[in-house]
Amino acid sequence: MIDWSIIAEALPAFAEGLKTTMMLLAISCGAGLVLSVPLAVARVSPHRAVWGPVWLFTYVMRGTPLLVQLFMVYHGLAQFEAVRESFAWPALRSPWFCAWLVFTLNTTAYTTEIFAGALRATPSGELEAARSLGMSEATIYRRILLPSALRRALPQYGNEVVMMMHATAIASTVTLVEITRVARDVYYNHFAPLESFGVVAVIYFVLTFGMAGLFKLVERRALRHLRPTASGVA
Amino acid sequence: MIRTLTGALALAILTALPVQAQTKLRVGVEGNYPPFSMISPDGKLSGFDIDIANAVCAQMKVECTLVQQEFDGIIPALNAKKFDMIVASLTITEERRKAVDFSDPYYDVPSRFVAKTGAFTEATPASLKGKKIIVLRNSPRAKYVQERFKESEILLVAKETEVYLELIAGRGDIAFGSSVVSGEALLKKPEGKGFAQVGPTVILDTTAGAGVGIALRKGEDDLRTKINAAIKEIRANGTYKSLADKYFDFDIAPKS
Question: Whole-angstrom Cα distance, residue B254 to residue B256?
Answer without folding.
Answer: 6
